[in-house]
Structure formats: structure tokens, C-alpha cells
Specification:
It contains 4 helices and 3 strands, in the order βααββαα. The protein is mainly alpha-helical and 76 residues long. It has one domain: Multidrug-efflux Transporter Regulator, Chain: A, Domain 2, CATH 1.10.1660. It is globular and about 35 Å long.
């Protein structure tokens, strides 16, 4: 059976706020499963997120949009 992490656990692991974890999830930056209790995350998804956005400033929505645009440009 797969192990899942809660929003609180991901926030603690990444030294971030629950609000930021929610923002990253809504923007499609951090893969998750939506449940009636909130979001759940596989550790693999968190690892992929940290690898993908390493060194980028993603503390607010504007900076997230810039990071996503940069990644999209790099893939082109």
C-alpha cells in the first residue's frame, strides 16, 4: 500500500506554510490527490517537486507563475 503525506507533513518537511503547499498544489506544481479531508501527497511527488523547483523563489503566486514560465521556456 502506498504511503501518503498530509499537507501539514509536507509543509513541515519543506519548511513552508500550509498555505504555500496549497498554492503549489492548486497551480499544478505539486502533484496531489484531493480527498474529502484535504490533499494527500506521495513522498515521490514531493521529491519531484523539490528537484524541479530547486533554487527557485516560489513563495507567492507571482513568483510561482514566473517559475512555471521559466520551466516552460526551458522545455521548448
Amino acid at each position: 500500500m502506498d504511503q501518503y503525506m498530509t499537507t501539514e507533513q509536507v509543509a513541515e518537511l519543506l519548511h513552508a506554510t500550509k498555505r504555500n503547499v496549497g498554492m503549489w498544489t492548486r497551480k499544478g506544481m505539486l502533484q496531489s490527490i484531493r480527498t474529502w479531508q484535504g490533499y494527500l501527497f506521495k513522498p515521490q511527488w514531493v521529491d519531484e517537486f523539490t528537484d524541479k523547483f530547486a533554487g527557485m523563489e516560489i513563495s507567492n503566486e507571482e513568483k510561482c507563475d514566473l517559475a512555471l514560465a521559466l520551466l516552460k521556456r526551458r522545455q521548448s
